[in-house]
Specification:
The protein has 497 residues and is of the alpha/beta class. The chain is built from 14 helices and 26 strands.
């Protein structure tokens, strides 16, 4: 079994059913598979894509994301979804690191092709506007692979921010993703009648698994929201399409608690992920809508879902819940010793959802996986009832709109600015967007720096959400007795931007 076969089997059972809603348009299961087969044939015939090749998928949310994703898999290749907020320099690194020679994108992002081609001259681009509507035999999937991929084979590489300032490619197998989909199906009691509202980017592992693979492999539908640039129309759109399950981030639920609802609220279940859910937001939301809001936890290296509060039974505010079916979670100390209830340590994960490792980084893989356990870098504990709570982050990481941002990456860019002697980046709170990066900069002696110039310098080199929202100049950074920068002294939880 592999993802391409699983999707084809789902299509066989319901070829005429609507698999995706997009504004006023509807796409059947049969149409999506037919288009995926067109993509697979073009990749093999025109772009010489062979089994095991990595193909980049650099798209904003649009209907073509789905056939492009499954088309790559049908060709026996590996999907590398790329964050569409990244700048060409950041994308070029991923193309180079993954050895990507073919990139599927659209006309808007394709405008960056000259910059990408300069870094990787062999790169070829397939724009989704060129996808042709053709009819294929949807009773069997086409594949360019001599040996169809198995569950153990690599399917997707998700690039995650790295503590060294460079992202790492988490290798997810067909089995990793199929098992995570099945665990989520059981936990969420997902059925064919369910319609998943898709607001978050499909390049994100959370939405790729829960918002796309889960509904399509179970036989449900995606409501791919078209009105993201018009927030007042988002609710109208998902209510009109009668979406039943909403996976989103805490900031969206905070907004919903204060927003007028156009008509009946259609959801039977809402899921919060990608960042901690404030207890007050949970209480306000459930009081207003009388719909369960389930908080969970995951990371790309685990395909990504690890824990969820149960749909039936006790849901504990502030907790990330219980391990999902077929996944084990433990709390361990730095030496790998299992800790008991209410003891703080590192959250560790074991199961068929855990990645194969990091692409071309055996040392990083060895550091991340110990005796079969994935070390998440998050600190927390298990209570007496088996519910898990996260209390801190071992990794020096920010969560900006639910996306991991490592200060080191921002610091490395700011260090390139002439006249910068020292830099430290921390997260400050923003009531609407969660954490925001803030930079503390020490100028070189005799140099006067301009905040706007520094921010503009960063904006040309980093995705917008990574750009510091403020630069504070200091004569020196606070340090401890050993010379380590005391970032705790720079973080002020009582201070909001």
């Amino acid at each position: 079994m592999n993802l391409a076969v699983a999707f084809a089997d789902s299509v066989k059972k319901r070829p005429e059913k609507t698999a995706m809603f997009w504004g006023e348009s509807e796409f059947t299961y049969g149409a999506l598979l037919a288009q995926a087969q067109v993509v697979a044939q073009r990749l093999a015939a025109e772009f010489n894509v062979k089994p095991g090749d990595r193909v980049g998928l650099w798209l904003k949310n649009r209907p073509e994301f789905v056939p492009a994703f499954f088309g790559i898999l049908n060709a026996g290749a590996v999907v590398v979804p790329i964050n569409n907020f990244l700048k060409p320099d950041e994308v070029s690194y991923i193309l180079q690191d993954a050895g990507i020679d073919v990139l599927i994108t659209d006309a808007d992002l394709g405008a960056h092709f000259p910059a990408l081609a300069a870094a990787r001259p062999a790169l070829k681009v397939l724009k989704v506007e060129e996808f042709e509507q053709q009819t294929f035999n949807i009773q069997r999937p086409t594949s360019n692979a001599q040996r169809p991929p198995t569950e153990a084979d690599l399917a997707v590489i998700i690039y995650t921010s790295g503590t060294t300032g460079r992202p790492k490619g988490a290798m997810l197998s067909h089995g990793n993703l199929l098992h995570n989909v099945e665990s989520c199906r059981i936990l969420l009691e997902t059925v064919e009648l369910d319609r998943f509202a898709v607001l978050l980017p499909l390049f994100h592992s959370y939405m790729m698994t829960v918002g796309m693979l889960l509904p399509l492999l179970v036989g449900g539908s995606m409501v791919l929201v078209k009105s993201l640039n018009q927030p007042h129309n988002i609710l109208k759109e998902i209510c009109q399409r009668q979406a039943t399950i909403l996976p989103a981030i805490p900031q969206f639920y905070r907004t919903l608690t204060h927003a007028p609802i156009p008509g009946a609220f259609p959801f039977r279940l809402c899921i919060s992920g990608a960042a901690p859910l404030p207890v007050q937001v949970l209480k306000d939301f459930e009081a207003k809508f009388k719909v369960p809001l389930i908080e969970g936890y995951g990371l790309s290296e685990a395909s990504p879902v690890v824990t969820k509060n149960p749909l039936r039974g006790v849901r504990k505010p502030g907790s990330i819940g219980l391990p999902i079916p077929h996944v084990e979670v433990s709390v361990q100390d730095d030496g790998g010793r299992m800790l008991g209830a209410n003891e703080n340590g590192e959250i560790c994960v074991r199961g068929s959802n855990v990645m194969l490792g990091y692409w071309n980084q055996p040392e990083a893989t060895a550091q991340a996986i110990r005796s079969g356990w994935l070390l998440t870098g998050d600190i927390g504990y298990r209570d007496n009832d088996g519910y898990y709570f996260i209390t801190d982050r071992k990794k020096d990481m920010l969560l900006v709109n639910g996306i991991n941002v490592y200060p080191r990456e921002i610091e490395e860019v700011l260090y390139q600015f002439p006249g910068v002697k020292e830099v430290a980046v921390v997260g400050w709170l923003d009531a609407r967007r969660g954490e925001m990066p803030v930079a503390f900069v020490v100028p070189s002696e005799g140099v006067t720096l301009d905040e706007r110039a520094l921010i503009q310098f960063a904006r040309l080199r980093l995705a917008d959400y990574k750009v510091p929202k403020r630069v504070n100049f200091m004569p020196a950074l606070p340090r401890n007795a050993t010379g380590k920068i005391l970032k705790t002294a720079l973080r002020n939880p009582a201070t909001e931007l």
